[in-house]
Amino acid sequence: MLGDIKGFTREELRRFFAEEGFAKFSSSQIFNWIYKKRVEDFSLMTNLSKSLRDFLPRNFYFSKLELKDKAVSEDKTEKFLFKLKDSSLIETVLIPEPKRNTLCLSTQVGCKFKCSFCVSGLSGFKRNLEVSEMVNQFLYLSDYLKPAKVTNAVFMGIGEPLDNLENLIKAVKIIMDEQGIYLGKRKICISTAGLASKIRNLADLGLGVGLSVSLHCADDQRRSRIMPINKRYSLEELTKALLYFTKKEKKPVTLEYILIKELNSSREDAVRLSRLARKLNCKINLIPYNPCEYFEWQAPDKSEIEGFTKALKEKNTFFTLRKARGRDIEASCGQLRSRFEA
Ligand code: SAH
Question: What is the pLDDT of residues 106-122, one digit of tens each?
Fold first, then answer.
């Protein structure tokens, strides 16, 4: 059976080649060709032995993403819609800033978690992305950006990364590999809706990557209303898992908090959020909601945002207020894909 070469970590390839009687360092050479030199043709990998060059195409192939659509926002955020081999659609977003180029990668086709404000869950869950499908999003965009470089990668696109943990870990290992793409662990962040048990699993792996939690509400009753995952893992359980992660990884997590008009943006909400942030000793990212046609939710007006941030400041809670990027191209989670599947 043929294997998709970009679906394997260097360690997996190393073991495979050793079993087949090839030199152990072949895996490093192949990683170099694919991820550093960006060569996707085994016959051009001239420093490999002739027998390995014959062996490789009989056992491995190169997968590719097909670009189906692209949208560019006024703020230069770019959104790529890719078609997979089974015709599923996924999105990848490129957020260029003066000193960085951040990619927002998808991890699943659709999403099971059905947050009440997020388009990704609307048409249900189809499947997990394969390792190479995550890696290929990265490669496509880094080829596209050349000579500029991808400086950061966040797993914040469609799907729940921790619900596809096994493949996610392999993709992260390939992206971090010093013989391959070699993006630093501090430049990679995984975002979760709050799968407490998987947060512990991730902490145990000690990869050193960042963790972000889509909190959006700091009281159980209302969080369960907008994020059904909260019924499975309450804020108390989530908090314990986050403290475990912080202790193991020796670095703070980030709480993502989208501000939605008249839902989670009152001064009382801010006080609850600051209490939780103090317990976790973490960072907070506030982002005004990106409205879309499928839901009634709106972004709060300026005065509501000011009241919220003032209350945080009064409690000495550190936060960053981010701009919602790519509003005009529906760059929030799942919005471009939904257009094509409607
Ligand atoms: N399932 C993971 C990864 C998806 S991240 C998680 O929940 O973290 C996508 C982020 O975009 C999440 O924080 C999500 O809550 C947020 N989001 C979804 N729809 C949005 C919208 N319309 N406006 C602003 N943020 C949105």
Answer: 999 999 999 999 999 99
